[in-house]
Fold each of these.
Amino acid sequence: DGGITQSPKYLFRKEGQNVTLSCEQNLNHDAMYWYRQDPGQGLRLIYYSQIVNDFQKGDIAEGYSVSREKKESFPLTVTSAQKNPTAFYLCASSFTGQGLSNQPQHFGDGTRLSIL
Amino acid sequence: DAKTTQPPSMDCAEGRAANLPCNHSTISGNEYVYWYRQIHSQGPQYIIHGLKNNETNEMASLIITEDRKSSTLILPHATLRDTAVYYCIAGPNTNAGKSTFGDGTTLTVKP
């Protein structure tokens, strides 16, 4: 079945360590996104990418980095510079381009990151 | 993207219609209205979207006012499994990467 796979579901990090969250999609979507969600709050955009080898910062990019070497993959690295990384991280993807600009986003089931 | 305003919470009796309002008074002509829902600890699920006309699919109906400043998501026969947080978003398209998911409306369907 087509979809978005995020792994792992739960992740623990020691302070000072970088950690990478995986996001893979087989929907042939051009665009991919990373969001952060804190308890009881909505989603905030971290980074997004509309094409391979290109990405843009969202509203809360500080302390995070991404890469987009393949269309199917958009990993997110939470660096030690992110002082409050404990949160629920969601990856999404969508079609983009002319004539497809109103296509919705499809989400993975998220990764819950905690600091030890 | 236009700012949206939703009530923080609503209750609905099982089997009855759930009507979730959304205000988007600053929406511009090319911005769509999208609805998603998020069940606890899962990723958001797309429900429906529209530009001007009312829309219906197997999950819900979307009613957009003529001036497009507000909309209502209708779940015709709510079930306990419809208990979730519902997000309304207005934007030129979600692909712009600037979509903001606010705090949404927590809908609780009661037996």
Amino acid sequence: AQTVTQSQPEMSVQEAETVTLSCTYDTSESNYYLFWYKQPPSRQMILVIRQEAYKQQNATENRFSVNFQKAAKSFSLKISDSQLGDTAMYFCAFLQNSGNTPLVFGKGTRLSVIA
Amino acid sequence: GAGVSQSPSNKVTEKGKDVELRCDPISGHTALYWYRQRLGQGLEFLIYFQGNSAPDKSGLPSDRFSAERTGESVSTLTIQRTQQEDSAVYLCASSLVSGRAYNEQFFGPGTRLTVL
């Protein structure tokens, strides 16, 4: 079974600064997907960024980028130029590359952006 | 178009009562998932429906939990004889089923269940 670990329960960052959230995972699969989701107080899960395991290039989406280290099974999220609206819970998630299967989530990191 | 909707938004019930939670997936999405999110925790998979196939119930925590889905439409999650440990946010997600390896799951806003 796959597991996802987020070792930082809470983090804070000053507005406009950069912050990195950590995630490690365990799997015996070679092909899979990794995700970062944002959950603001509204509870709505928002997909921030996706990484395909077969791609060596790290995914980027505007201010969000990942550092994907397949051998180390590490998948960190970097948020540049942090904004107050980035304050939320962030979840790392794993998906097997075998059709429609459930996501496996970490326990989350609560990020606070401070003005 | 409309996203995934869930009702009620919040539900308070007394221990021992039964509750039903509803999920309306995005039209055309044949895959539907239920997840549970306890306070301060990540999402835990409960059950998965895909079209007319038998559902994957491997995540249901006890026989007090059950879910139904009629075709490719609405799903209801039923919790019988609720316990305080059932207090959580219950999230529903839906996705297309296609030949692609990855189909994005779109989440609803969840139902917050509080068992007194």
